[in-house]
Design brief:
Blueprint: H1 2-10, H2 14-23, H3 31-59
Helix pairs in contact: 1-2, 1-3
Keywords: Membrane, Transmembrane, Transmembrane helix
Length: about 60
């Protein structure tokens, strides 16, 4: 996310920057948009990781 934000600010790898801005609601190739995109990605990744860990522990026979 950080690299695509930086690339977008200097005009490199426009295709990847465009795809990232379509997939993430808050990402834009500006400093504020890059930070917002990083925060959004952290929240989404944390949610999916937590869900995966809960499902893994449930189906693996863990006590918690």
């Amino acid at each position: 996310m950080l690299l695509l934000g930086l690339f977008g600010m200097i005009g490199v790898y426009e295709g990847g920057v465009e795809m990232m801005s379509q997939w993430h609601l808050f990402f834009t190739p500006t400093p504020a948009g890059t930070i917002a995109g990083i925060i959004e990605a952290v929240i989404i990744t944390g949610g999916f990781t937590y869900l995966f860990a809960k499902l893994y522990n449930r189906f693996s026979g863990s006590l918690s």
